[in-house]
């Protein structure tokens, strides 16, 4: 596997994904962003971050939509602070960074599975193609464009990163360190806990 060619493919994939989402950085707040971001007074002060982890009512200004998702609220508070207010552009940049990290983790996950099943110098390119297919697929658009839905990206990253740690660093299995990304991901959205039954299967 030619590392330079693979790196070039990776950069092309990143540019393609960036191109596909180029206009998303100008998107405004939508739907549930109203009560979780725009009308949520708790994200306007970084001092509330510890409270996010003990009080689920801080997630939303609507009582019926309050749930325990402290990591989302934490990232929203940081975005609000860095953007000096409700500037959706910075919120979109934040979500996109998480999405790119997810794609990078997926590459190493796919590569390890392919090398374990059938070693080949072409596996890196196939893994990169799989990442590009996922990164450019319209099914991901809502999770990337819809700010409060970044929880989907967080939880999925937690699952994939846990598998990467499990596969690449066997020593961390004895201490259960590979579960840390799952725990962090579940603080954004509970589906991250599906890692456990997936690993069992």
Description:
- It is built from 11 helices and no strands.
- With 201 residues, the protein is mainly α.
- Helix 4 (70-83) packs across helix 5 and helix 8 packs antiparallel against helix 10.
- The radius of gyration is 18 Å and the shape is globular.
- The two termini are 31 Å apart.
Write a compact overview of the structure shown:
This protein has 201 residues and is mostly helical. The chain has helices spanning 3-20, 33-38, 49-52, 70-83, 88-117, 123-136, 141-145, 150-168, 171-175, 180-186, 195-200.
Ordered list of secondary-structure elements with their pairings:
Elements: H1 3-20, H2 33-38, H3 49-52, H4 70-83, H5 88-117, H6 123-136, H7 141-145, H8 150-168, H9 171-175, H10 180-186, H11 195-200
Helix pairs in contact: 1-6, 4-5, 5-6, 5-8, 8-10
> Helical proportion?
55-70%
Oligomer: single chain
Assign the structural class, choosing from mainly alpha, mainly beta, alpha/beta, alpha+beta, or little secondary structure: mainly alpha
Radius of gyration: 18 Å
Described by the principal axes of the CA atoms, the overall outline is globular
Mean of all residue-level pLDDT scores: 91
What is the number of strand segments?
A: 0
What are the low-pLDDT stretches, counting only 5+ consecutive residues below 50?
none
Sheet-strand content, in percent, reads under 5%
N-to-C series of helices and strands: HHHHHHHHHHH
N-end to C-end Cα span: 31 Å
Describe the sheet with the most strands. none
| Count of separate DSSP helical elements | 11
Describe this protein with a few key phrases.
single chain; 201 residues; 0% strand; globular; mainly alpha
């Amino acid at each position: 596997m030619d590392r330079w060619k693979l790196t070039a493919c990776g950069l092309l994939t990143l540019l393609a994904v960036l191109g596909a989402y180029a206009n998303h950085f100008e998107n405004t707040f939508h739907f549930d962003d109203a009560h979780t971001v725009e009308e949520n007074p708790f994200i306007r002060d970084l001092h509330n971050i510890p409270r996010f982890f003990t009080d689920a009512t801080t997630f939303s200004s609507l009582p019926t939509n309050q749930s325990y998702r402290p990591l989302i609220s934490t990232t929203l508070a940081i975005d609000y602070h860095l953007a000096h207010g409700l500037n959706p552009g910075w919120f979109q940049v934040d979500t996109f960074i998480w999405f790119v990290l997810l794609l990078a983790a997926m590459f190493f996950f796919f590569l390890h599975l392919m090398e374990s099943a059938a070693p080949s110098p072409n596996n890196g390119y196939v893994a990169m193609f799989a990442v590009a297919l996922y990164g450019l697929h319209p099914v991901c658009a809502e999770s990337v464009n819809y700010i409060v839905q970044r929880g989907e990206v967080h939880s999925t990253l937690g699952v994939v990163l846990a598998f990467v740690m499990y596969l690449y660093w066997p020593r961390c299995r004895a201490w259960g360190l590979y579960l840390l990304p799952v725990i962090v991901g579940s603080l954004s959205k509970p589906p991250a806990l599906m890692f456990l039954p997936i690993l069992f299967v």
